[in-house]
Design brief:
With 178 residues, this protein is of the alpha/beta class. It has a single domain, classed as Rossmann fold (3-Layer(aba) Sandwich). Helix content is 22%, strand content 37%. It has 3 helices and 10 strands, in the order E-E-H-E-H-E-E-E-H-E-E-E-E. It has a 6-stranded mixed beta sheet. Strand 3, helix 2 and strand 4 form a beta-alpha-beta unit. It is globular. The model has no long low-confidence stretch (mean pLDDT 91).
Length: 178
């Protein structure tokens, strides 16, 4: 992880190593295991970006749990589009349940705000949020991010599930726009 990579028309430099990510994931899982030890939460994994984080996180979660998936879109190129469209909806009955939204990255909070609104209409017991990455300088919403892997500046990143125009999700490290 020492050199620039090119994805389409952009260059990216190394930012977070696989070891840094793994450590952050384990810390998030430990907090979830402790705080939700008396619950059987439903982990709601936001596709496509959070698939790697969710996979690694749930391998470390030791409490009983269920996993479901939702697919939403709010990005176009390197910036948020400002709108969210639900593409694949939640089909399970989650009323009265603790739900943990699993996000790859929280920046503007537009996607999260939409998901919280959807879940609140389903009469859940409580909503928690676990995110691999958080951009605190971009996040201006009121909803609390309960479990944060790593806080990063407001830079565009790829890898570990995050993409640039569909590419780069498969990288095990995280790279930042050079």
């Amino acid at each position: 992880m020492t050199q620039l990579i090119t994805i389409k028309d952009k260059q990216f430099r190394p930012y977070l190593s696989a070891e840094q990510i793994e450590s952050a994931v384990k810390n998030v899982a430990a907090k979830i295991n402790k705080e939700l030890e008396n619950e059987t939460p439903v982990f709601l994994v936001v596709l496509n970006g959070s698939f790697m984080f969710a996979s690694d996180l749930l391998k470390e979660v030791t409490i009983p749990c269920e996993i479901s998936f939702i697919k939403v879109a709010s990005y176009h190129g390197t910036s948020s589009s400002g709108s969210v469209s639900e593409l694949i909806g939640l089909t399970e009955d989650i009323s009265g349940r603790t739900v943990v939204i699993v996000e790859d990255i929280v920046d503007t909070g537009i996607t999260l705000e939409k998901l919280v609104a959807i879940l609140q209409r389903k009469n859940v017991k409580q909503i928690k949020v676990a995110s691999a990455l958080l951009k605190p300088d971009s996040y201006k919403k009121d909803y609390k991010i309960d479990y944060v892997g790593i806080e990063i500046p407001n830079d565009f990143v790829v890898g570990y599930g995050l993409d640039y125009e569909g590419l780069g999700r498969n990288l095990k490290e995280i790279y930042v726009l050079a």
